[in-house]
Design brief:
The protein is of the alpha/beta class and 432 residues long. The chain is 40% helix and 14% strand. It contains 15 helices and 14 strands. A hairpin with a 2-residue loop joins strand 1 and strand 2 (45-48). The protein is globular and about 60 Å long. Pfam families: Aminotran_3 (PF00202). Its main location: cytoplasm.
Length: 432
Amino acid sequence: MKTNQSKKLYKKGLKHLVGAVNSPVRAFSSVGGNPIFMESAHKSRIQDVDHNTYVDYVLSYGPMILGHGNKKVIKAVKTAVDKGFSFGASTAGEIELAKIVCDAFPEMDKVRFVNSGTEAVLSAIRLARAFTEKDEIIKFSGCYHGHSDALLVAAGSGLATLSMPGSKGVPKDAVKNTLIAKYNDLESVAQHLEESDNVAAIIIEPVAGNMGTVVPSKAFIKGLNKLARKYQVLIIADEVMAGFRSHFGGAYELLGLHADIICLGKVIGGGMPVGAYGAREEIMQMVAPLGGMYQAGTLSGNPIAMAAGIATLSELKKANPYEGFNETAAQIENMLLKAAKKHHVKVTVNRFGSMINAFFTEQTVVDFETAQSSNVKEFATFFWELLRQGVSIPPAQFEAWFLSTTLTKKDLKQTALAIDKAMEKVSEMKNN
């Protein structure tokens, strides 16, 4: 595996980019070595600047559910580009994508488009506070909801990978109304609600993806619904990652969670920068220009992103790939467990829809604490050998892997062989 050009670009990038990257996870800090610079992608495969090609399970951290370079998405984007990049005015595309999104979510009468998942969540938090006239938010340790100050505590994603407890520059006052509960632990939620009458909402990733893929228990979801009703607090479902990845809608529906406000991103933009938040009419009436909760954005609902989103969701609905995703995820789980057993490596696999993770631990991973029992050194060895074998997964233990509709039998065969080689390397590393 050649990396000369990536090394040159990394060195060059250090001069003007912070760490030569624009998002910390891309720096490969938790797996060691220099980051790989990508050049192009097509369908299920991605190519770096040294012309190494990989089966892609990163998929831009989720958005590329149709694979790379989908012809209909490209055509839609080109058509939109020819008409103009951005107008600072309303367009028909916003209405069309809004209808598709609202139709997919029974609880959503209206939606507001923004430019990122972070924007969607910080707006949803503000909306919950405006609607309830309360200040506190309950979040779960290990769940990452973007980098807004109030939620950048006990977060997953890069913070978990880098073992950072939070972020410098976040004032204590910014997080004083953020209460931390334990994922899959009702008692920790109930305690906060019993002790405070100032809780506006509980925010949750219905399927966590930023401490690795972690799925809530049925009892936990059922209990969460009861607590929200009892204490009259809203539930915010952060579906930025999981939205449209387990069925044509939100993971929360399949799990039985009663969401009041839903946050979206990634898939709904088809690779373009898009976020969204939506809720029933009564709640969305609070948002300006109808109500007093202010939120705005120069590029919100821009025609290029709307075109990509419309094309992506239209193709996704037509293809209905979800049964296939479940089957493929089960195949990959079997590959991981079989190879781990063969090479005497302790591995736990979690999956939901088209999201999957291998944790290098024998513990059942149900929350942030058990996720952190994973051996990150073993993961790093596993990651690099997969890469050498032509398979790309996120360069961090605590990031979900994603499936696309373009995976082929050939890709899966290569993945199986790569996983076997990588588990062998982990075993060798342990024994040396």
